[in-house]
Amino acid sequence: MADLSLTLSSQTPADLAAIEKLDEHAFGPGRFTRSAYRLREGVEPDYSLSFVARVGTLLVGASRVTPIFCGEQPALLLGPVTVAPPFRSGGIGEALVMKSLGAARAAGHRLVLLVGDMSYYGKMGFLPVPPGRLIFAGPVDPDRLLYCELVAGAFEGVKGKVRRAMR
Questions:
Q1: CA dihedral angle for residue 21, residue 16, residue 59, residue 126, rounded to 10 degrees
Q2: How far apart are CA 67 and CA 58, in angstroms?
Q3: Does any domain span residue 40?
Q4: With CB atoms 3.0 to 4.6 Å apart as the test, which of 13, 89, 110, 128 could cross-link to 151 if both were Cys?
Q5: Is residue 157 part of a domain?
Q6: CATH code for the domain in which residue 99 is found
């Protein structure tokens, strides 16, 4: 019988088609209009910080990390974090987030931003962005704008427009 254990590995360009199908199923066609998706347009994920989850050979989850700027400060945008519906509630999403945060910390990054639910991401070290500190080009629910300091004090003084970082 095949090994059906969970494995996390770095994303590669070869994974992108399968990840796109996963994202399409999870978030639908309206995902492209969301502000966070607009920040990622035309910017490759940082493959050293983005991961896929597999059960056996089946890709069941993915985390994407993209470089951004918050005002003048370099930062990372985490998301989407996607897990196939039959595999949700099994800790795969949390494992992907923690793997991405650990890799980002090890690479010397200081700050991660995401748009998500505080009830889910709060247990992984994310906090709500204080109202008015960061401005997105498009609409973002301010209650869902979260940050995680990879280095203590990294969010101090960070303010302004959130914009893409071209590599």
A1: -90
A2: 28
A3: yes
A4: 110
A5: yes
A6: 3.40.630.30
pLDDT in tens, 94-117: 999 999 999 999 999 999 999 999
* Residue 137's pLDDT band (cuts 50, 70, 90): confident
Lowest mean pLDDT: which of 75-79, 112-116, 141-145? Answer: 141-145
N-term to C-term CA, the chain: 44
The range of the structural domain enclosing residue 137 comes to 6-164
Number of helices (H) and strands (E) in the chain: give both, helices first: 4, 9
**Encoded tokens for 24:** 């399409």
- How many CA atoms, within 13 angstroms, populate the side-chain half-sphere of residue 85? 5
Cβ neighbours around 141 below 10 Å, total: 8
Q: What angle do CA 82, 84, 88 make, to 5 degrees?
A: 90
pLDDT at 167 exceeding the cut of 70: no
